[in-house]
Design goal:
2 domains; 75% helix; 189 residues; mainly alpha; 10 helices; homodimer
Chain lengths: 189, 189
């Protein structure tokens, strides 16, 4: 087996996710993942620090895209509109990997340890969005509040997108959920 | 030393928090906590399963009060107003224990493990508020979105209340933060 395998990272990630889905995350070994992908454990560890990283390494790109969306929003954009642009940018990359994202969500829902890890990642994402807003000159507590409310929208939209059999893309579900947030916050009788 | 010590639980909790604050959570032993409180380790373990529970056992009452506030909101209350009533009810009990709550927040901020535990507790709280809204007949995704947005408000308000030298009570800071959320969500130019 040669040292450089084409698409090794992607093959390993897909094999890992399939095994986590079939047998559970805890029950799957790196040896089994490598075997399923037709690669060696050594190759696995050239791409991922451990089997959990297969599920969470994509978070770096997600965060970069979301933060980039906030940064690139037009100068006059209100804080919530800048966050909406960030969420939409993040939603686009998940949309491109819908099959992976949906299966990943199921694997995470089945493990308390992975759910905790996901909560921590979402909290980091909220903090990164708040940083990006402050860089745009948004003051506290507006920056933190807008970022956290945005993550609440993302969280709920993501769950709908994963669950629902409809054909809406994630950016569209995020837009709907944000409209819903506007309606519930405005809804004092 | 008699088996039943007056105020043992409270004395242990205060001793534990002081030690966590002075030395760090990881560096404090149950023996030291018991010694500082003038009680035995045996007594500590009659009140708390472990040293982490000293920091998190109050979460049960907080959740009950918040959920009770949502349940007891008037029949015609909009979902966000029912959540606001729940947050205010939770804010009141923290207000009564401000010194403990502020010191506790500092201890948690100093430990990654405790921060993770706190995130998990806040996520459970959001889920409990969403349940309470569904019991009031609020449909999904409105229930989850309102509960999560409410927790975003609580999170930001709590941080302001802990940090600020002002004299505002937590229920008042929560009200201000909710008004701020209404302003940022309405703020499309």
């Amino acid at each position: 087996m040669s040292r450089w395998e084409p698409n090794a990272r992607e093959r390993l990630a897909r094999a890992a996710l399939d095994l986590y889905d079939e047998r559970g995350f805890e029950q799957t070994t790196v040896a089994e993942i490598a075997n399923r992908a037709g690669l060696t454990e050594r190759t696995f560890f050239r791409h991922f620090a451990d089997k959990r990283e297969v599920l969470f390494s994509g978070g770096v790109e997600l965060q970069e895209r979301m933060v980039g969306g906030v940064r690139d929003a037009s100068d006059g954009a209100a804080p919530m509109d800048a966050v909406a642009a960030g969420l939409a940018a993040g939603g686009e990359i998940l949309d491109e990997r819908r099959a992976f994202a949906v299966k990943r969500a199921g694997v995470i829902a089945a493990s308390a340890e992975l759910q905790e890890r996901e909560l921590i990642k979402l909290a980091s994402l909220a903090a990164a969005l708040a940083d990006a807003l402050r860089e745009r000159g948004v003051a506290e507590p507006t920056a933190s509040l807008t970022a956290q409310a945005g993550m609440a929208v993302f969280h709920v939209a993501f769950a709908r997108w994963v669950d629902e059999a409809n054909e809406l893309g994630l950016p569209e579900v995020i837009r709907e959920s944000l409209d819903e947030l506007r309606a519930v916050t405005a809804g004092t009788p």
